[in-house]
Specification:
- With about 525 residues, this protein is mainly β.
- It is about 10% helix and about 45% strand.
- The protein is elongated, with a radius of gyration of 34 Å.
- The N and C termini lie far apart (about 80 Å).
Length: about 525
């Protein structure tokens, strides 16, 4: 506060007091202005920091391998879009169909045959045609750094397309590295063929042996909780599994029915590359599954007890091509307490040459007093990339991915993509104590059939998202009629007893694929 002038300063007392008042007012104004300036500085600093935070938090967009990915600036959140189109066309080179009295080619279950699942009016002439084998759209990514997720829908099918289904939906926690926990619907790890991406398979379909084993307690759309881990040269996984996700089929308009009790299974796999070098590796592995409780399809009877036929397992497959969805080897429903598989894996890779082999053994503990059956299957295969690329070994799945295309196809600019030759022989036997030609099926006998397939293929990878596949198959189905004294008398199957209902044919097929 200003002080009044002293006597002798040359101004009156009144003027001095007025001057002091004016000085006090100016000091207050200066203080108020200083406070406003401080407030303005604080606001400007906050606004500048907000702009900086907004810039730092802005998501980035990238495209790798044709897949658009949105990623937060700190890398803790991401979302990747996926799309798959696999369009197949096939021609089945078979003998011309004849009258059903003399043309005995048939399909249907060995057990549980009825007029609804055995075609009594046609020889089994497989259809030439086309099929959207897979048509998928989905998203996966990361949340909060340690969480992965995936949601994937599929509208493809076998024989005819499905109306669409939830194909994969899962969440995975990675905070226990090198261990990971995944829960939802997915294919738990059960082998080389099982875990190879369908976008990268060297053939149009997995081997029958792998398909039979994986579909018992694993396979596509299986609900499961899996604990797995991996390193540079090892992989281990174990899962508790349940049912498969239901779907309505376009051709039959039939849905997978709700059960009275879902299946309970276990799966496990141990694999790795114990021997390796700069441009070579040896893969070894074992896998297995166990159905502790088959699904209860019938519910309790009038006496309150579930009949022995209410819980069962079955094994069947098409001949490694799905344009025609007919399952030419088929055990039908086997009343079962438990069932299991055990498999062995082998692969050897040196540069652009790859050899693969797997063996699967399947066992069933029957619940109806008959002897426990067992089945087996195997395949051996090889691929050779003519253009020098090598298939990549994926340590996260302990399986092989597609090669990186060194020179993507570009008409007029010298790029011709990657070219691959592939060959496979597979053998799958769903017979158990089948008996002899000319006899009826009886007792513990299961005449599911034996399938032998030689496949040769050429794969042209245009780039990382597009490829064309051409496969040739020679298929031999050896199967005795599963007619027994009851079904033979009711003509569900046919006479003569124990006739050969198998067949041999060739298949030419092509796949056009676009996947990102």
């Amino acid at each position: 506060m200003a002080t009044a002038p002293t006597a002798g300063s040359g101004i009156s007392q009144e003027q001095a007091l007025a001057l002091v008042a004016r000085l006090d007012a100016l000091e207050r104004q200066n203080a108020e202005l200083a406070a406003q300036i401080q407030d303005l500085k604080a606001q400007t600093s906050a606004q500048t920091q907000a702009v900086r935070d907004e810039v730092h938090s802005a998501a980035t967009v990238s495209v790798a391998g044709g897949r658009p990915t949105f990623t937060s600036a700190d890398g803790k959140f991401s979302a990747t879009l996926h799309g798959v189109m696999q369009f197949d066309a096939a021609a089945y080179d078979q003998g011309s169909p004849g009258p059903i009295a003399t043309d005995l080619r048939r399909s249907g279950p060995a057990l549980g045959a009825s007029t609804s699942n055995v075609d009594l009016t046609h020889a089994r002439d497989l259809k030439n045609g086309d099929l959207f084998r897979r048509s998928r759209i989905g998203i996966d990514g990361t949340a909060f750094g340690d969480w992965d997720y995936r949601i994937l829908f599929d509208f493809g099918g076998a024989g005819v397309e499905n109306t669409g289904q939830l194909y994969e939906t899962w969440v995975q926690y990675n905070g226990f590295r090198p261990l990971h926990v995944r829960v939802g619907a997915f294919a738990p790890s059960l082998g080389l063929d099982d875990q190879g991406s369908t976008n990268a398979m060297p053939f149009l379909e997995r081997s029958t042996a792998a398909s039979l084993a994986r579909n018992l307690a694993g396979g596509d759309t299986r609900t499961a909780a899996q604990l797995f881990g991996y390193g540079d040269h090892w992989f281990a996984a174990g899962a508790v599994t349940g049912r498969v996700v239901g779907v309505i089929n376009t051709g039959t308009a039939a849905a997978v029915p709700q059960t009275f009790g879902d299946q309970l299974g276990l799966t496990g796999r141990l694999a790795g590359t114990p021997f390796y070098g700069q441009d070579w590796l040896i893969h070894l592995g074992v896998n297995g599954s166990y159905v502790a409780r088959p699904a209860n399809a019938s519910g309790p009877g009038t006496n309150g007890a579930t009949p022995v036929t209410g819980q069962s397992v079955s094994f069947s497959d098409t001949p490694e091509i799905r344009v025609d969805g007919t399952r030419l080897i088929n055990t039908g429903n086997i009343p079962a307490k438990h069932a299991d598989t055990i498999g062995a894996e082998f692969a050897a890779q040196r540069k652009n040459l790859l050899l693969l082999a797997e063996y699967e053994h399947i066992g069933v503990q029957r619940s109806d007093g008959f002897a426990d059956p067992h089945f087996d299957g195997y395949y051996v295969a090889g691929t050779w990339l003519l253009t020098g690329e090598a298939r990549k070994y994926n340590t996260q799945t302990a399986a092989f991915d597609a090669p990186a295309v060194a020179h993507p196809f570009n008409w007029g600019h010298g790029g011709w993509g990657a070219w691959e030759l592939a060959a496979r022989y597979s053998n799958s036997n769903l017979n158990y104590d089948p008996g002899s030609l000319g006899t009826l099926q009886s007792g513990s006998s299961i005449r599911g059939g034996e399938e032998k397939i030689f496949t040769a293929g050429v794969n042209w990878y245009w780039n990382s998202v597009a490829r064309v596949m051409l496969d040739y198959q020679n298929v031999r189905i050896e199967r005795l009629s599963p007619a027994n004294s009851t079904t033979a008398a009711s003509t569900i199957w046919f006479t003569p007893a124990g006739a050969n209902i198998g067949q041999s044919f060739n298949v030419w097929s092509v796949r056009t694929q676009f996947a990102f």
